[in-house]
Amino acid sequence: MNALFRSFFAVSLLGGALLAGCGGQEKFANSNVAISNQDRTDKDLAIAQDGAVVEPTSMPGKYGGKMIEASPGDPKTFNLWVSGDATSSGAAALMSSALIERNPYTLEWEGALADLPKISEDGLTWTLTMKPGLKWSDGAPITADDVIFTLDVIYDEKVQTNFREGMILDAPDGKGGYKRVPLTYKKLDERTVEFKFPVRYAPAREILSFAIAPKHILEKFWKQGQPNSTAFNPAWGVDVNVKDLVSSGPWIITEFKPGQRIVYGRNPNYWKKSKTGQQLPYLDQYINLIVPDLNTTTLKFLAGDTDVLNPVKQTDYKIIKAKEKAGNFTVRNLGPTFSTSYLGFNMNMKSKPAKENPELFKLFNDTRFRQAVSYAVDRDKLVRNVYEGLARPGYGPESPANKVFYSDDVPKYDFDLNKAKGMLADIGLKDSNGDGILELPNGKPVTFNILTNVENSLRVGMATIISSDLRKIGIDAKFTPIAFNSVTSRLSNQPEKGKPYPPFDWQAVVLGWTGGIEPSNGKNIWMSAGNFHQWDPYQEKPHRPWEAKIDDLFRKGAQEMDDTKRKAIYAEFQKIVGEQQPFIYTVVPDAIASIKNNYGNLKPCPVGGVTWNLDEIYDLSATRSQP
User: Fold this and answer.
1) Is 125 exposed, middle or buried (0-12, 13-18, 19+ CB in 10 A)?
2) pLDDT in tens, 583-604
């Protein structure tokens, strides 16, 4: 399972989906592939632009072999339900299954641990029946009790989880406003769970596609310290004995050596079988090498130490493409990624750096300043110099890969240093001492530090160019590349009652979001109370009028059942983000991946990448008929 799909899969387990109504399963053929420049995209994938999305037939495989891939860093936890970063979520997602899931190739909804739901005529009651005979990797039965336990954990506010925000519903309060309420649920029998929605909810299916936690293992941690605290958050940390981890997914972890590798073995009790009845997965092992430097990742692939290179850095594309035949691998350009890259400012006036320099943070909070900075970002230069043309300028929160919800009607701040300087002058910033750096009203220079993760040379390259161009308009922007886990630890700290407010110790950052099809999946980024509302998270009430408007749009978007109206709602959201620039979007890279030719059942697609169906991929040299 490659990095792109690990992220997609982990996000999909949080909830959010596109529905046309309240029954059956939908097919979104035109949304599988988006190509703004078909000359750069593999032709077989371009065919899907015309709606010809038919998943290739899976062939029966033999058992044996392994696949080796590389990851840029260690996970921070193996506990998917408290994970807050893509590396950790990806590592844990390989051991997880959901009740239902979206096929990354066709985008159809399919049953997983449960069959597709039965839905009442009013669209409010959804009943899921789990498949018979399900087992955890340790042999314990997977039942409705695990589903109930998972939801109890998710809705426990002492548990620091990204799942909860996506599963809090905005219901009309009868007074013209909204109230935030949980999904209600109850066990009907050992295999059946009933869910009740307060209103018809468009993202209902993906809300119900959450990963199931093992009650028989994790309940003791959750109960420890209750009712005032819980030991669930540190449970299954990276210091865990991997033999104590249990899986409902295709893989179990057999070895973890920090800084070196994670080794996955086959889950003997995995629920999924091939169409011919073969137990999946086919491979004996999936090995994830920890390789912090992307240049080293490329070298390891070319040396034959790994079987998959995803992503292929744009700067390496020509070199790797030239070695396809000799290296017995295939390079695939899957079109624009769903991911977006951005420069973001900390606008949280309660943060430690804001208290140390309030005038600077008042400037960060001025929309005109953020717009001026956006004019000073030379996106075309980033595409040319950093991505070697294998990207396109980005201007908003949705990638053009999202054919369902992407809107091009957003403000575009094309590179214009003179316009940027004029806007800064209108704010009242001046260079009084002639040193080339503008001063704040208190006389201090406009200077700040941009963080980015050192493992990603593309982001380091972007930060280098951005900081250089900002200096041309009188802004002293330095940048510091640090480890990804260090970046995320500064950005995401949940305030807790009775404890000091977290420092949120950062000024600016160059990072990216892993996107997807359903905008509601990003509500914990965009709604003001969200834990990933990065510039000013966990707001009890919106601090800015435009944030309140986005909150309202996300509520309406989730409850609007008409696809055309939903698209208009989220187009308005994209326009507001473009006007306000809480994130200054930079580029949307092409999704490029490479994989050895010695595997069968490969089905590359833009959403899932090249190994989204890792459980049915097999080694062409494998010979065993039994696992």
Assistant:
1) middle
2) 999 999 999 999 999 999 999 9
Helix (H) or strand (E) holding 146: helix 144-154
- DSSP string over 337-361: -S-EEEEEE---TTSHHHHH-HHHH
21: pLDDT confidence band, cut at 50, 70 and 90? very low
| Percentage helix, strand, coil for the chain under 3-state DSSP, each rounded to 5 | 30, 20, 50
- Tell me the C-alpha distance between 28 and 18, whole Å: 9
- Token code pair at residue 520: 């509601």
Task: Name the β-bridge partners of 182.
Answer: 168
All residues at 6 or more sequence positions from 303 whose CB lies less than 8 Å from its CB, including other chains: none
Which candidate, 422, 342, 419, places its Cα nearest to that of 382?
342
In what helix (H) or strand (E) does residue 257 lie, and over which residues does it extend?
A: strand 251-257
- Sort residue 32 into left (φ over 0), alpha (ψ -120 to 50) or beta: alpha
Pairing status of strand 508-513 against strand 329-336: unpaired
| Number of CB atoms found within 10 A of residue 276's CB | 9
Residue with tokens 């850095």: 313
pTM of structure:
0.79
Strands 391-393, 587-596: parallel, antiparallel or unpaired by DSSP? antiparallel
Are 18 and 404 contacting, i.e. CB atoms less than 8 angstroms apart?
Answer: yes
Mean pLDDT computed over every residue of the chain: 90
CA proximity to 88, closest of 148, 13, 25 = 13
How far is the C-alpha of 346 from the C-alpha of 332, rounded, in Å? 37
> Tokens 């295939």, residue?
330
